[in-house]
Amino acid sequence: MNIAEVVALKDHLLYVKAEDGRSGLFDVTPYLDSEAFAPLVDAEEFQKVRNGRYFVEWACGADLSADTIEARWQTLADEGERMAASEPPVREVL
User: Fold this and answer.
1) DSSP letters along 30-73, please?
2) What is the pLDDT of residue 33?
3) What's the pTM?
């Protein structure tokens, strides 16, 4: 999977859109106990996510591969489901 877009949402969720048009939500919460992801507990740090196309990464050095995201994301069927799942709206970042 190639990542076309990534947006940090509240509650340590990422909205991820693949280049093939699929989209989903990825919960980073289970990773926050590890040393590499610990800085992301801070909402300001979490919002600094960067799209590397085959991975996402943060300034603190934490990263997730597109394969990991694809294996564990909650796919969204359409724009309406995406909006309902991401209160507040996806475009409103942290």
Assistant:
1) GGTTSTTTGGGGSHHHHTT-EE-SSEEE-TTS-EEEHHHHHHH-
2) 95
3) 0.81
Supply the mean pLDDT for the chain: 87
- What's the CATH code, domain 3-85? 3.30.2020.10
In Å, how far are 21, 41, 42, 81, 84 from 32, measured between CA atoms?
28, 7, 10, 26, 25
Pick from 75, 76, 74, 45: which is nearest to 61 by CA? 45
Judged on CB neighbours under 10 Å (0-12, 13-18, 19+), 83 is middle
Task: Say how many C-beta atoms besides its own lie within 10 A of residue 18's C-beta.
Answer: 18
